[in-house]
Write a structure and sequence with these properties.
The protein is elongated. By secondary structure, it is mainly alpha-helical. It has a domain of 95 residues. It starts with 5 loop residues before the first helix and ends in a 6-residue tail after the last helix. The protein is built from 7 helices and no strands. Helix 2 packs across helix 4 and helix 6 crosses helix 7. Bound molecules: iron/sulfur cluster (SF4) (2 copies).
Length: 153
């Protein structure tokens, strides 16, 4: 089991506070891991999915090829997290570079927080402010415990 310390948490919680560990694109994330496990558990289900359409009279099994393609996609996630590479999702994000310049691990530690420099849209900005206020209130370790098992979406 991996040791959960400040460095581990930094590998999962981005400077903006979003939880990379629960992102579908994160290589070491739950979504990628469980998708790979489900893929293994399904084995050679392709053949059976075709049969089950008629045997069970359940047309939903005809959708298996699309499901499999999506599952494959999720299982080969490659992102190393916000601190190691540019975010694939939020292309206009200024936070990572800015937090490096300001020499803070998380935005709530910055004297400018909450700032207008994130590059986020309104929805994401609201989340950014709420998350950082919570981290400020309870500290990063407790915050991580709070979100560790919660879905991000
Ligand atoms: S950096 Fe962006 S794409 Fe990568 S895991 Fe974090 S949120 Fe997802
Ligand atoms: S200026 Fe804004 S984006 Fe940059 S580190 Fe401070 S709070 Fe984060």
């Amino acid at each position: 089991m991996k040791k959960v310390d400040g460095e581990f948490i930094k590998g999962r919680i981005a400077p903006c506070g979003l939880h990379c560990g629960k992102c579908f694109a994160f290589a070491d994330g739950d979504i990628s891991y469980h998708s790979g496990e489900l893929k293994k558990a399904l084995g050679n289900f392709d053949v059976y999915a075709q049969r089950f359409v008629e045997m069970l009279d359940e047309p939903v099994f005809a959708k298996y090829p699309d499901f499999k393609e999506f599952l494959n996609h999720l299982s080969v996630a490659t992102c190393q997290g916000c601190r190691k590479e540019k975010c694939k999702l939020f292309k206009n994000c200024n936070v990572r570079v800015c937090s490096e310049e300001k020499q803070v691990d998380y935005c709530f530690q910055c004297s400018c927080f909450p700032c207008e420099n994130t590059g986020f849209d309104e929805h994401l900005y609201k989340r950014f402010v709420a998350i950082n206020k919570r981290m400020q209130e309870i500290g990063i370790e407790k915050y991580y415990e709070e979100v560790r098992d919660l879905p991000r979406y």
